[in-house]
Design goal:
Number of helices: 13
Number of strands: 10
Radius of gyration: 20 Å
Structural class: alpha+beta
Shape: globular
Largest sheet: 4 strands, antiparallel
Order of helices and strands: HEEHEEHEHHEEHHHHEHEHHEH
Length: 329
């Protein structure tokens, strides 16, 4: 079913799926015409922010869903997902899953949103009737709890700043984040991985300031009480709406990642720009506060939080991605 050219095509599309900090930990190997291995590059991890590997596994799940969407375009489907946790004898990488393909696939309605989905970290345009209509339709999604623009969003924006600053005060976490940031176009990996200045909607002066505030000046700024206000983003967050992404308790993060990607694509399909605010779900204090203020259905857990809204015309960052030659092993 898959020859080398078609395999490259579907992996190119699958690679457009999001990953935590855009670390792109997923690798692929074509074993046979109907068999693909999903592998993990263990060097691409976040020991400080993700010590248990939950977010990396969730990223694999998003990549897996990306492959499923790509296969549907070519009349294929993933017939079986066999989970593994072993080393691949050829590549030396850890095998996450063995995928068996079958015929009979159809194009998923969300597949058309793949190419246009991106992260928007700037301000959103003011709410209008079209936005509220899109948000109301999105609220019907089983995995999303939508908070409309207004005072409740402003409250969440303040909580997001508290959560973000909590993690920035952890030296290992802050340094790890900074290591994955590409704040200058001269950075050798600017267009390959991580979070570049364009993706973070930072101008050149803002990018330089960020490198200083999060880098050598942070301890001094913190002592002076300036670090927290300089890292706040509540104005950007409060400019749109909020969507709480929730999934069943105890679910394998691989499955969660598939649903996460589909939820984001559903936003893009309705013309909405979005950006995850992962710290809100990661910090137990903010996680509990959000659930208390916006109760989830029984048996569900808060996985992530999106801010979303109308993106200015012509805005939207190009996605930094590794070349196919590094993704296919």
């Amino acid at each position: 079913m898959l020859d080398s050219d078609l395999f490259r095509d579907v992996i190119a599309e699958a690679s457009l799926a999001p990953s935590v900090h855009n670390i792109q930990p997923t690798r692929w190997r074509l074993v046979a015409a109907d068999t693909v291995l999903l592998l993990e590059d263990g060097q691409r991890c976040l020991p400080a922010a993700d010590p248990a590997g939950h977010d990396v596994r969730l990223s694999h799940g998003a990549a897996l869903e990306g492959l499923s969407l790509a296969c549907g375009r070519h009349g294929l489907r993933i017939g079986q997902v066999e989970l593994h946790d072993r080393l691949d004898e050829i590549s030396g990488l850890r095998v996450i899953a063995r995928l068996t393909l079958a015929t009979g696939g159809v194009e998923d309605p969300l597949a058309s949103a793949v190419a246009g989905r991106s992260t928007w970290r700037g301000r959103f345009l003011p709410a209008n009737v079209e936005l509220r209509d899109s948000l109301q339709k999105l609220a019907a999604a089983p995995d999303l709890l939508v908070v409309l623009p207004g005072s409740a969003v402003a409250e969440i924006a303040g909580l997001a700043d508290r959560a973000g600053f909590h993690f920035l005060c952890e030296d290992a976490h802050r340094r790890e984040l900074l290591a994955w940031m590409r704040l200058s176009r001269r950075h050798p990996r600017y267009d390959r991985d991580g979070l570049n200045a364009e993706a973070m909607a930072l101008g050149s002066a803002e990018a330089i300031a960020a490198s200083l505030v999060l880098g050598p000046l942070f301890p001094l700024l913190k002592r002076l009480g300036l670090a927290e206000p300089l890292t706040q983003e509540r104005a950007k967050t409060a400019s749109g709406a909020i969507a709480l992404f929730h999934r069943p308790e105890g679910e394998d993060p691989l499955e969660t990642g598939r649903a996460f990607y589909r939820a984001w694509l559903a936003m893009a399909a309705r013309g909405l720009g979005a950006c995850p605010i992962s710290v809100l779900a990661d910090w137990p204090v903010s996680n509990a506060a959000l659930i208390q203020r916006h109760p989830l259905p029984a048996g569900r857990r808060l996985v992530n939080v999106f801010r979303l809204g109308r993106v200015p015309p012509g805005a939207g960052a190009a996605r930094a991605r590794l070349p196919l030659g590094e993704l296919i092993v």
